[in-house]
């Protein structure tokens, strides 16, 4: 939970998990909300000669980090009088302990937050006593805040990590925000701790709205949400808008960055791989006989779609032509597709196409059912003439709402550079995948037409 170092010559650093480490020297902090004793005493005694202590606390919101460090500082009785007075005042006005001292407020930076007019879930405080200096940064599970803090001169030596924050749905993503954070904050610490940026961070149109604002886009801007097929739907919708003359240029794609509390929900439904936790690099293995679920990913991507004449007129470099796309729902099951919708979707995408498909980038997520269901749909569409196929998720993992645009980009790279990526990590081919032209190694190839499949929960 913390980091300690000296200053000057002979500087040293050590990691210390004060909220989980149990030692014979551990002691309980009196009247603390913390349920477990903490090994603080031995730690301070060991490093009592160090003139500077730096703590970086990372974890879930309201897990006692601020209270732990705040009580440590308060009990030293060596804070400045104005700091103690401010703590007592803030405890009465903003605290959660009634008439008692709310030690967490030493870390919460209320005065600084009031000056900025906003509330954030990060605090940086400096304490100077006659014995040593304390620098404390409290970052409850939000990696981007830690990065922001590290940019300032006063916190240039602060570095740490946390979970990733929540993703936007639709024209840039696949799902809502990061789990129960806002409710927990409201319940435990009040509405101010929820913060004014929670809505724009977690609304379904977060990515499209953020990009439109950042790049001053004045054309239409909106988001779609269709689970793991989201960004494919966005690409198709953008093509329709151009085809019907509503726009000349569209940026279409998606983004996804899940907080671990969202990932846990996929784990709870048995969708994530657990059989390769000792070898996570090979856990994503579509079509392998031992696959047991997908590996969650994150990221984002955008395609620039443009009317052909408009692109030529401005001298744009054209990477490919979008020949068609299909969008269907099989209406069978929320998480177990029948394959019938995938058949219609592929037929729709190839309608009017008078050239063969040279390569197929499948949806293949590495789930036992989904992979073979899609292969069955491929056989029904192509018969015995299925094109060479592979799933790039073996290398990238499954980035949910961003997966479609990622795989569209991968397919464009293969088209441009003349190769077909193999499905990695197939040690033993699933017997149900026998007879399909599944690429197990990357191959050089001259490609003219490629297709990328994307499917999602709800049969989309």
Automatic annotation (TrEMBL):
<protein>
    <recommendedName>
        <fullName>3-oxoacyl-[acyl-carrier-protein] synthase 1</fullName>
        <ecNumber>2.3.1.41</ecNumber>
    </recommendedName>
</protein>
<keyword id="KW-0443">Lipid metabolism</keyword>
<dbReference type="GO" id="GO:0006633">
    <property type="term" value="P:fatty acid biosynthetic process"/>
</dbReference>
<dbReference type="InterPro" id="IPR014030">
    <property type="entry name" value="Ketoacyl_synth_N"/>
</dbReference>
<dbReference type="Pfam" id="PF00009">
    <property type="entry name" value="GTP_EFTU"/>
</dbReference>
<dbReference type="GO" id="GO:0003924">
    <property type="term" value="F:GTPase activity"/>
</dbReference>
<dbReference type="GO" id="GO:0005525">
    <property type="term" value="F:GTP binding"/>
</dbReference>
<dbReference type="InterPro" id="IPR031157">
    <property type="entry name" value="G_TR_CS"/>
</dbReference>
<dbReference type="InterPro" id="IPR014031">
    <property type="entry name" value="Ketoacyl_synth_C"/>
</dbReference>
<dbReference type="Pfam" id="PF00109">
    <property type="entry name" value="ketoacyl-synt"/>
</dbReference>
<keyword id="KW-0444">Lipid biosynthesis</keyword>
<keyword id="KW-0012">Acyltransferase</keyword>
<dbReference type="Pfam" id="PF02801">
    <property type="entry name" value="Ketoacyl-synt_C"/>
</dbReference>
<dbReference type="InterPro" id="IPR027417">
    <property type="entry name" value="P-loop_NTPase"/>
</dbReference>
<comment type="subunit">
    <text>Homodimer.</text>
</comment>
<dbReference type="InterPro" id="IPR000795">
    <property type="entry name" value="T_Tr_GTP-bd_dom"/>
</dbReference>
<feature type="domain" description="Ketosynthase family 3 (KS3)">
    <location>
        <begin position="1"/>
        <end position="460"/>
    </location>
</feature>
<dbReference type="InterPro" id="IPR020841">
    <property type="entry name" value="PKS_Beta-ketoAc_synthase_dom"/>
</dbReference>
<dbReference type="GO" id="GO:0004315">
    <property type="term" value="F:3-oxoacyl-[acyl-carrier-protein] synthase activity"/>
</dbReference>
<comment type="pathway">
    <text>Lipid metabolism; fatty acid biosynthesis.</text>
</comment>
<dbReference type="InterPro" id="IPR018201">
    <property type="entry name" value="Ketoacyl_synth_AS"/>
</dbReference>
<keyword id="KW-0276">Fatty acid metabolism</keyword>
<keyword id="KW-0808">Transferase</keyword>
<keyword id="KW-0547">Nucleotide-binding</keyword>
<keyword id="KW-0342">GTP-binding</keyword>
<keyword id="KW-0963">Cytoplasm</keyword>
<dbReference type="InterPro" id="IPR000794">
    <property type="entry name" value="Beta-ketoacyl_synthase"/>
</dbReference>
<dbReference type="GO" id="GO:0005829">
    <property type="term" value="C:cytosol"/>
</dbReference>
<dbReference type="InterPro" id="IPR016039">
    <property type="entry name" value="Thiolase-like"/>
</dbReference>
<comment type="similarity">
    <text>Belongs to the thiolase-like superfamily. Beta-ketoacyl-ACP synthases family.</text>
</comment>
<keyword id="KW-0275">Fatty acid biosynthesis</keyword>
